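Design a sequence for this backbone.
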């Protein structure tokens, strides 16, 4: 984590694979404050964090698997700038990372244009559906088609 911080540029998202290790935290509020001071945009890990209130106070978005009171270990090994895997998602340097209160999405840089095109179509479809819900809809059209074509077998 400190190796990545030493090489980070303003606007970078630091993504740290921890193999879902849960006996210690990956970072705490002090490291989060250092990242914020350096201009890091966010920190993402499959590990844990500590000092939640302090991290929130720094304003740095942190996405982690949970909270753990044990301090991070400050010794290696570690590699900076290599592709990693968090859960089943591969993250390569330069990928686009987008996070919000619901979680994190990784967009491979080579697929960014395709993803943006698809996102525009999804947003347009959702807007139409939102209007229908506000008008009283109780079922999405696609779900209704699935139900209409469903074969229901009664069990005795």
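Sequence:
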């Amino acid at each position: 984590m400190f190796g990545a911080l030493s090489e980070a540029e303003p606007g970078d998202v630091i993504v740290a694979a921890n193999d879902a290790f849960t006996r210690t935290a990956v970072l705490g509020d002090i490291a989060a404050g250092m990242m914020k001071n350096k201009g890091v945009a966010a920190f993402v890990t499959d590990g844990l964090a500590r000092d939640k209130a302090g991290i929130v106070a720094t304003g740095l978005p942190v996405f982690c698997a949970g909270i753990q009171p044990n301090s991070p270990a400050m010794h290696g090994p570690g590699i900076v700038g290599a592709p990693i895997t968090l859960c089943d998602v591969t993250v390569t340097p330069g990928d686009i990372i987008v996070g919000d209160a619901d979680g994190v999405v990784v967009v491979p840089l080579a697929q960014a244009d395709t993803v943006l095109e698809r996102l525009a179509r999804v947003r347009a479809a959702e807007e139409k559906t939102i209007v229908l819900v506000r008008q009283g809809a109780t079922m999405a059209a696609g779900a209704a088609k699935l139900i209409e074509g469903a074969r229901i077998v009664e069990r005795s």
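The chain has two domains: 2-107, 113-148.
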